[in-house]
Design brief:
Distance between the termini: 104 Å
Mean pLDDT: 89
Structural class: alpha/beta
Radius of gyration: 25 Å
Largest sheet: 12 strands, mixed
């Protein structure tokens, strides 16, 4: 065999080895990225600071990493569920965010699917108490829900303070369209029955007389949080809510003269979850997006941007955020964060809304 022939064989062998190596490497590359190239999907997020963080910091990198397109719409829980209802036969969305209150509704109506653990590895990091309805929803952020007030006034040490004479005509109550008013009704039922909130929630009807006593203190009922913040900050009202700390604390961080109350009874947990749409047009991409939301980097960044607690273990928060959010899980227990039994309450929601309108609309 001539040297030239040997060289040709060596070259051919080298090329084959290179191609073989490339062939072995290629599947790993395509599994990680190529499968999503050119795909697009809709995701439904929250409005406000969470929606802003996802729009600015999560979606651009997700699109770059997977070479895909994410179309985001921003709404509230009932709005997102409404979208899923109208599209049930032919969904456009692949992932949808909603509060914990919405997960049992969406599951019962066949709007969302179980979250597959094999396609969402970060599910393993979610605190067990924050997986909902047979893994049909996973929490990604936990806020406290409480009253908030202008820092120039005497502090509110208890929910019961809201009924005092000093707040006559000075209270801005959140719209009964939001679940926070159900939590306020649970407080009223607790005051009326003398039972702890988690027991009184099963006797909500007994709270209406107490709610009627609150009516003289209500200056207005707000739907737009920013307007309420402005009025309380300017001293046109004294107290607002109940509302999510994720909504209030960013304003405080920017200098608004507000205080998030820490009532002696404890506060409520405001749990934001993410779900996979049943019949999603891009289920794998939806799972990848859910996994990204639950990833340590996003959990840390979102917690510090929105000032809400992560839902996964092992996150090191900056000192400023760590001082005010309910994290880690042991601190959630110390802060006495109540989670209502929404599966029992949800069937009553329509009647509760009607009663709110009767009491506060007349």
């Amino acid at each position: 065999m001539s040297d030239q022939t040997g060289k040709k064989k060596a070259i051919i062998t080298g090329r084959r080895s290179l191609l073989a190596a490339a062939g072995l490497a290629a599947p790993m590359f395509f599994v990680r990225n190529g499968w999503a190239a050119g795909k697009s999907m809709y995701v439904g997020t929250y409005t406000g600071v969470q929606g802003e963080y996802i729009r600015r910091h999560v979606i651009p990198k997700f699109q770059s990493d997977l070479d895909c397109k994410v179309l985001q719409t921003e709404n509230v829980t009932l709005g997102n569920i409404g979208i899923l209802r109208t599209q049930k036969a032919n969904p456009n969305y692949s992932a949808m965010m909603m509060d914990d209150v919405g997960v049992p509704i969406a599951k019962q109506e066949g709007l969302i699917a179980p979250l597959p653990k094999d396609k969402i590895p970060n599910l393993a990091k979610v605190f067990p108490n924050f997986m909902y309805n047979d893994s049909h929803g996973a929490a990604f952020a936990i806020s406290t829900v409480s009253l908030w007030y202008n820092k120039s006034i005497k502090p509110l040490d208890s929910f019961a303070d809201l009924w005092s004479e000093r707040f006559r005509g000075r209270y801005m109550m959140v719209t009964p369209k939001q679940t926070q008013t159900v939590q306020l009704l649970a407080v009223a039922a607790s005051m009326a029955t003398g039972k702890p909130i988690l027991e009184a929630q099963y006797e909500l009807d007994k709270g209406w007389a107490k709610m009627a006593e609150l009516k003289p203190n209500v200056q207005t009922i707000y739907e737009t949080f920013g307007n309420a913040v402005l009025q309380v900050s300017q001293g046109q009202a004294d107290v607002g809510g109940p509302d999510f700390s994720k909504s209030v604390l960013p304003y405080i961080a920017k200098g608004a003269p507000l205080v998030m109350s820490k009532p002696a009874e404890g506060s409520f947990a405001g749990v934001n979850t993410i779900t996979l749409v049943k019949g999603a047009p891009e289920p794998d991409l939806g799972c990848a997006f859910i996994d990204r939301i639950l990833s340590p980097a996003v959990q840390k960044g979102m917690a510090e941007f929105t000032i809400a607690a992560p839902s996964v273990s092992g996150i090191e928060l900056d000192a400023k955020t760590a001082a005010v959010v309910a994290y880690p899980e042991s601190r959630m227990k110390e802060m006495k964060l109540y989670v209502l039994d929404w599966e029992k309450i949800n069937p009553q929601r329509s009647a509760i809304l009607d009663k709110f309108n009767q009491v506060f609309g007349s």
